Amino acid sequence: MTARSDPLAFLADELADLRSRHLYRPLRVMSSAQGPIVSVDERRVISLSSNDYLGLTHHPRLRQAALRAVERYGAGSGAVRTIAGTMTLHEELEAELARFKGVEATLTFQSGFAANTGVLAAITGDLDLIVSDALNHASIIDGMRLSKAPRKIYPHADVAALREILAEAEEHGRPESGEPYRLILVVTDGVFSMDGDIAPLPGIVEAAEAHGAAVMVDDAHASGVLGQNGRGSVDHFKLHGRVAIQVGTLSKAVGVLGGYVAGSHDLHDLLTQRARPFLFSTSHPPAVVAACLEAIHVLEDEPHLIDRLWKNTRRFKSELVRLGFDTGASETPITPVMMGDSATAAAFSDRLFAEGVFAQPIVYPTVALDKARIRTIVTAAHTDRQLDQALSAFDLVGHELGLLAG
Ligand code: PMP
């Protein structure tokens, strides 16, 4: 009998391949709390890598709310929402989120990822059509894969192309029968997570309305960032009542963990019966829910945090451009610093780290092969001095690696 070789041996080959193409990134391990300064690999560095836009991950009011919830309700919820895992806290958070967003109802999920996959698979099927922006987030792509609905992809932010797809879908209906689609759902990120550009939502909504389609916007990076008190892209563009489904996350500017779907009572009720992450995965522990609830109140009570976020963003972005860097199409605190190939991006990030700045490279397959970049996010918690230090490091390394002339 011959010894059987390791059936998983191909994993080592795949890893070797990734390493040889500079596409393997080891995990950086943080031994401190999240914040503008973090401890990574035994070093204190300025972090430009978190999604903690407003510094809420370590806000005293959120910490206190989490501690009180642990004391009162314990560490875990113990069940999925539909069995015994719905606590008054969960319902309170959903009511507050609905009030905050100005919608009939919201339903929370364990993450923004779960919210996107959950809602798309639950409400669309083979009678429907999903029309999606080419650069939508992975969780939207996976949600579409889990749905039986056919899908069409329009080039990134191209409203004219979207309009054509919608006109054709409305005119011809479903391919087999010619019957009208039950639902045509246009899905877009509100803010695109790699380029930091804002979706052309007014044009998307007009195109959808002209052809009887509904719109879903994923506001992961707009929640807490765009709109009054961080109400999101629908508020930013004053499109209240014209976007049927809003997804938000509680994991980024809100500072904790989770996602939610905001819309009508019917949408809420159907999701409680059909959305698989809701039905089959345990609900948030009390500390998470209580901290999210407190975060909504902080957004309303402390608008200076959003003002500071945008002030820091404008300064950091304009200084990077003045130094000679290409920051792409960004309009938000997500500021990519374009590097081109993945080897340059990796080398740049490593040199920045040596200079005390933690900013991660983003490479293929997250972005196209020739669009590797350093992705930066400044937060409300960064001081002017920290931003100046980070900019000096970018300037130094940019010259060293020949990306900046002179
Ligand atoms: N949508 C977008 C656009 C995102 O960037 C992310 C997070 N990277 C998500 C959804 C998922 O959110 P969460 O981290 O809460 O799962």
Compact summary:
With 406 residues, the chain is α/β, with parallel strands linked by helices. It has helices at residues 9-20, 60-73, 88-101, 112-123, 138-146, 159-172, 201-210, 233-236, 265-274, 276-280, 286-301, 304-323, 342-354, 384-400; strands at 37-40, 43-47, 105-109, 129-133, 151-154, 184-189, 214-218, 245-249, 259-263, 334-340, 357-358, 361-362, 372-377.
- Write out the strand line-up for the largest beta sheet, numbering strands in chain order: 3-9-8-7-6-4-5
CATH class descriptor name of the largest domain:
Alpha Beta
What's the helical proportion of residues? 40-55%
Total of helices = 14
State the fourth-level CATH superfamily of the largest domain. Answer: Type I PLP-dependent aspartate aminotransferase-like (Major domain)
- Identify the bound ligands: 4'-deoxy-4'-aminopyridoxal-5'-phosphate
How would you describe what is shown here?
By secondary structure, the chain is an alpha/beta fold. The chain folds into two domains: 129 residues, Aspartate Aminotransferase, domain 1, CATH 3.90.1150.10; 240 residues, Type I PLP-dependent aspartate aminotransferase-like (Major domain) (Aspartate Aminotransferase, domain 2, 3-Layer(aba) Sandwich). The chain has 14 helices and 13 strands. The strands form three sheets. A seven-stranded mixed beta sheet has the order 3-9-8-7-6-4-5, with helices on both faces. Helix 8 links the parallel strand 7 and strand 8. The longest helix has 20 residues. It is globular and about 60 Å long. The termini are far apart. Bound molecules: 4'-deoxy-4'-aminopyridoxal-5'-phosphate. 4'-deoxy-4'-aminopyridoxal-5'-phosphate binds next to helix 4.
